């Protein structure tokens, strides 16, 4: 039976989709069955080549709250922006098409938004590692609302440490502020969320954080934005760095603190970029990897100095640091080729290795 919209839209839910046909039904079902029914669901089919577009159209035919936007492939940021252009709700939410949400997510978050007159509401996240049969909760202990902009930098640090800031999908954003300030996703993956949230935090007055981990972020071990090679990664890193510098300047953050943050970020991002050279979708030859290792890593005295001065956060960064400072591009190429052969050809042992690191 076709569902009818009541006319009042409290939350516009934007779902960008690209070739996620096997996961999209579960995602849309979790949104349709929200306790808060006064929503619109804007599915942006970003040039999918699988059946994602047809699935979205079938759902739209059964539920008048669903609208489907079909466009040529323009990537995640553009898909989200296309959804924002047509959103009519009081708040906007973003849900990734291969994830799902609990039925009380929007009712719980909207209730807090209404009570606290919050411009942004942030929830916890349930991270599901399906291949490791493991669940991790990123959340706070109790509800909290911050109204003093002078404390927003501290809030940013706290939420970053809890792994709650970088997501866009665990938040409600007041639509009027996004549209009045013309806030859009300007940087491509994998830094689009943090850059967007930094811009938003400069423009709002009230942030509420709730303890519920309603959003289920599914890590399936497949090739995703977070585990895929992107030729423009370092350019996106540079753009994110500029957004952060503007953010630190806006909130008058002590230079020593901001410099330390930027250095730690650079080490983390470059470590991720180096790993991405060996991910399954990279399709780079050994010659191409050696060139990138030489030009972007081993020839950069600035990067080496930053790595030398910065505290190492995990075993992957420790390996990265030792290879960069004490080895050569050729040895690094050999080491990471072996490591990722182990990663993809002996996955069971790799998973055991990861579990040992975690524990």
UniProtKB/TrEMBL annotation:
Keywords attached to this entry: Glycosyltransferase, Membrane, Transferase, Transmembrane, Transmembrane helix
Where does the Glycosyltransferase 2-like domain start and stop, copy by copy? 12-180
Q: Which residues cross the membrane?
A: 323-344
| Sections of the chain in a coiled coil | none
InterPro entries assigned to the protein according to its UniProt record, in alphabetical order? Glyco_trans_2-like, Nucleotide-diphossugar_trans
The answer to whether keyword Glycoprotein applies is no
Q: CDD domains from the entry?
A: Glyco_tranf_GTA_type
- Output the Gene3D superfamilies linked to this UniProt entry: Spore Coat Polysaccharide Biosynthesis Protein SpsA, Chain A
Record bears the keyword Transferase: yes
Q: What is this protein called?
A: Glycosyltransferase
Lineage at the top is:
Bacteria, Pseudomonadati, Bacteroidota, Bacteroidia, Bacteroidales
């Amino acid at each position: 039976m076709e569902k009818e919209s009541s006319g009042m839209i409290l939350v516009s839910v934007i779902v960008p989709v690209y070739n996620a046909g096997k996961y999209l039904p579960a995602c849309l079902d979790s949104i349709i069955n929200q306790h808060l029914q006064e929503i619109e669901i804007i599915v942006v089919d970003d040039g999918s080549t699988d059946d994602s577009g047809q699935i979205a159209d079938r759902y739209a035919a059964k539920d008048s709250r669903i609208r489907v936007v079909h466009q040529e492939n323009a990537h995640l940021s553009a898909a989200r922006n296309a959804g924002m252009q047509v959103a009519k709700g009081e708040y906007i939410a973003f849900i990734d098409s291969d994830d799902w949400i609990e039925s009380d997510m929007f009712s719980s978050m909207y209730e807090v938004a209404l009570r606290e007159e919050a411009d942004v509401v942030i929830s916890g996240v349930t991270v599901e590692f399906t291949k490791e049969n493991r669940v991790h909760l990123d959340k706070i202990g109790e509800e909290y609302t911050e109204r003093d902009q002078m404390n927003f930098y501290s809030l940013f640090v706290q939420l970053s440490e809890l792994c709650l800031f970088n997501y866009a999908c665990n938040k409600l954003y007041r639509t009027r502020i996004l549209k009045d300030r013309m806030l859009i996703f300007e940087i491509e993956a994998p830094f689009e969320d943090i850059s967007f949230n930094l811009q938003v935090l400069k423009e709002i007055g009230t942030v509420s954080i709730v303890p519920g981990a309603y959003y289920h972020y599914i890590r399936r071990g497949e090739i995703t934005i977070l585990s895929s090679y992107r030729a423009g990664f370092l350019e996106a890193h540079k753009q994110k760095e500029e957004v952060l510098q503007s953010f630190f300047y806006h909130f008058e953050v002590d230079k020593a603190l901001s410099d330390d943050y930027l250095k730690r970020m650079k080490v983390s991002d470059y470590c991720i970029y180096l790993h991405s050279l060996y991910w399954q979708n990279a399709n780079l030859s050994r010659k191409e990897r050696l060139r990138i290792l030489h030009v972007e890593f081993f020839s950069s005295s600035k990067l080496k100095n930053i790595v030398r001065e910065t505290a190492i956060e995990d075993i992957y960064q420790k390996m990265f640091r030792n290879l960069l400072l004490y080895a050569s591009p050729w040895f690094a190429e050999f080491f990471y080729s072996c490591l990722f052969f182990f990663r993809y050809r002996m996955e069971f042992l790799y998973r055991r290795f990861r579990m040992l690191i975690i524990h």
